[in-house]
Amino acid sequence: MDAIDVIRTKRDGGALSAEQIDWVIDAYTRGAVAEEQMSALAMAILLNGMERSEVARWTEAMIASGERMEWSALDRPTTDKHSTGGVGDKITLPLAPLVAACGAAVPQLSGRGLGHTGGTLDKLESIPGWRAALSPAEMLDVLRGTGAVVCAAGSGLAPADRKLYALRDVTGTVESIPLIASSIMSKKIAEGTGALVLDVKVGSGAFMKTVERARELAETMVAIGTDHGLKTVALLTAMDRPLGRAVGNALEVAESVEVLAGGGPADVVELTVTLAREMLSAAGIAGPDPADALRDGSAMDVWRRMISAQGGDPDAPLPAAPETHVVTAPATGTLTRLDAYGVGVAAWRLGAGRARKEDPVSFGAGVTCHAAPGEHVTAGQPLLTLHADDPDRFDRALAALDGAVEIDGPSGLLPLVIDRVT
Ligand code: URA
């Protein structure tokens, strides 16, 4: 087989055969297909798309490029959630211990943030001592002891995706639904979870800017999961404004702990409980109500044990940025827009995110929102607090917020949960 023939097939609008897909993924992982050839193929896929059978085979080949985890040693059903990423999306932090407190096991492999969206591992690493890298044996130990584990994927899990995602990132080929769907699902299927709930974000702060694109991505991922015998459900949820009030690593951990203590912003609580119900139902667990486990402290109990089991101190003070800058409301009225993308880019420029994979993040940096869209604000009241290690960062963050705030403008917020795809 020849890489040029595979590229030509897709370039000319054809469907790749199973043999072509298996060969190209294997050869690329081994280094026998050059980066420039894979980049041409990724662009041809982005432009010409893939049929359902091609996406399924592509996903299969990426899973087969590495190891597959399995959790049959556990005495509880496994269930997991994956979010396509957004601004202030800290839901995994309260959700994993909550679902464990209700009787399921949650083996979650998470990622780091890149660009304006945050990453779960960066958030958890703001807890002093907490460790993201666990061996499969350590993962099993934490799962047995606490019911939930959130850690980094090892290099042996879907290595074809690891290589291809890095290539897509620098060749303008991230925004392809078949490539995004196969990338996410290959990792989740290789992770070995028994059930999966996908939180597909929609809006300015998300990959998918429209409900139509998000629905197409959700349907593609649900089809891949179903074809693999994995019980998969997707929710389309709003990312036109930030989720909750905190955006930034330690700020989001603090907000998650508030939710686990029975408080926290209403949207974070609602989405956490909704996703928990979906995860439990997908795992075949009926009975426990996640809202009770937030109220009675049992989810908090699992959180504390889960953090301690990975070396973290749940009682240690979280890092705080030394510099702050307050943005005030420009007028009195109803806050009709607080744009997720603008706030996400501001938090990123303040140091909460990274521009390149190897960059460090600031744990204390980010944005606190003092009002949410739909609320009444008074001219001059604090609207946002920017947090940074270095005051030189404020100007560029403020530039990102230009046009992000609107008072008494047209209303048109997306509902928090837009749709459910099965
Ligand atoms: N997240 C992934 O893991 N892969 C993609 O392609 C996009 C988002």
From TrEMBL:
Keywords: Glycosyltransferase, Transferase. SMART domains: PYNP_C. SUPFAM superfamilies: Nucleoside phosphorylase/phosphoribosyltransferase catalytic domain, Nucleoside phosphorylase/phosphoribosyltransferase N-terminal domain, Pyrimidine nucleoside phosphorylase C-terminal domain. It comes from the Bacteria. The keyword Transport does not apply. Pfam families: Glycos_trans_3N, Glycos_transf_3, PYNP_C. Residues 334-408 form the Pyrimidine nucleoside phosphorylase C-terminal domain. It is an enzyme of class 2 (transferase). Its EC number is 2.4.2.4. GO terms for molecular function: 1,4-alpha-oligoglucan phosphorylase activity; thymidine phosphorylase activity. Belongs to the thymidine/pyrimidine-nucleoside phosphorylase family. Homodimer. This is Thymidine phosphorylase. It comes from Actinomadura craniellae.
